[in-house]
Write a structure and sequence with these properties.
Elements lengths: L2 H23 L7 E7 L4 E6 L4 E5 L3 H8 L10 H10 L1 H5 L4 H33 L2
Antiparallel strand pairs: 1-2, 2-3
Helix pairs in contact: 1-5, 2-5, 3-5
C-alpha cells in the first residue's frame, strides 16, 4: 500500500475514533463537537465545535494533541477525566434516587465511558506511531 493510501486509511480510522469518543464522552457531559473532517492528502484532521470554532490536528500528532486539546470542546474546560472521577466518587448519591437496574446501568455506563475513552486515546497513539513509520 502506498504512503498516501495508508495515510488516508489512518485518517479515516482516527476520524471514526474521535467520533466515537465524542459519542461516548457525551455520557459525562455534553460534547461540543459538531463534525469532523479530514484532508487525506496532507494528513490533517479538523474538529469543529458547536460554536463554529475548530482545532486542526496533524495525523502524526493526533493522540498528543487530541488528549491535550479535546478538553476545550467540553463545557467545563479541562475537567473531562476529572469529572469522571468525581462522578464515580459521588455515585452513592444516585443510589437512593435510582432503582437497582437504573443504578447498575448508570455505574456500568460511567465505567465503560472512562475505559473506552482511554482506549480510544491509546488507539490514536497507535495511529500516530504508524504515521511516523510511513
Amino acid at each position: 500500500m502506498d504512503k498516501i493510501n495508508k495515510q488516508r486509511e489512518l485518517c479515516e480510522e482516527a476520524v471514526k475514533l474521535i467520533g466515537e469518543f465524542s459519542k461516548e464522552a457525551g455520557f459525562i457531559n455534553e460534547c461540543q463537537i459538531s463534525h469532523i473532517q479530514s484532508t487525506y492528502s496532507n494528513g490533517i484532521i479538523t474538529i469543529f465545535n458547536n460554536d463554529g470554532d475548530n482545532i486542526q490536528y496533524s495525523i502524526s500528532e493526533i493522540s498528543y494533541l487530541f488528549q491535550d486539546k479535546i478538553i476545550d470542546f467540553w463545557p467545563l474546560g479541562n475537567r473531562f477525566f476529572f469529572d469522571v472521577e468525581c462522578l464515580k466518587a459521588s455515585a452513592l448519591k444516585y443510589y437512593s434516587h435510582l432503582d437497582k437496574i437504573e443504578f447498575i446501568e448508570y455505574i456500568g455506563n460511567l465505567h465503560y465511558t472512562e475505559l473506552r475513552c482511554n482506549e480510544i486515546i491509546q488507539q490514536l497513539r497507535e495511529i500516530e506511531l504508524a504515521t511516523l513509520n510511513l
